[in-house]
TrEMBL record:
<protein>
    <recommendedName>
        <fullName>N-acetyltransferase domain-containing protein</fullName>
    </recommendedName>
</protein>
<dbReference type="Pfam" id="PF00583">
    <property type="entry name" value="Acetyltransf_1"/>
</dbReference>
<dbReference type="InterPro" id="IPR000182">
    <property type="entry name" value="GNAT_dom"/>
</dbReference>
<dbReference type="InterPro" id="IPR016181">
    <property type="entry name" value="Acyl_CoA_acyltransferase"/>
</dbReference>
<dbReference type="GO" id="GO:0016747">
    <property type="term" value="F:acyltransferase activity, transferring groups other than amino-acyl groups"/>
</dbReference>
<feature type="domain" description="N-acetyltransferase">
    <location>
        <begin position="4"/>
        <end position="140"/>
    </location>
</feature>
Amino acid sequence: MKQLAIRVCTEADLEMLAVLNKHLIEDEQHDNTMNAAQLKERMRSFIANDYIAYTFEDRAVVIGYALVDHSRQPLYLRQFFICREHRRMGYGTAAFESLLNHLNSESLDIEVLHHNERGYQFWKSLGFVERSVYMRRKSD
């Protein structure tokens, strides 16, 4: 398995995190319409409060990131992203294992969008099981 370094992000990383978050939103086909500047401010608020953002790095190259809410038990993995050019190469599993080791936790909560079949299969392969169904009523 690949060995990745995990690094705690700071305010200096906000620009990069906003871009990666935008890519995550696009790739998941999420309905979030925030632009990069708005995502940067939202990320600033996250890490100023209960969240910690982490990058996964291979020889100082950022492979992806995670955003974890440390105020919840079990911890809540709000965002997990592997850069497009590094997918399907084992980095996702390696990054997740690095994160678990860093957090010293075996239990995490996540959400997967209903239409994200690849994401769903990825998380199932790592031992996650369905616990609830989150639903939204769309307005006309």
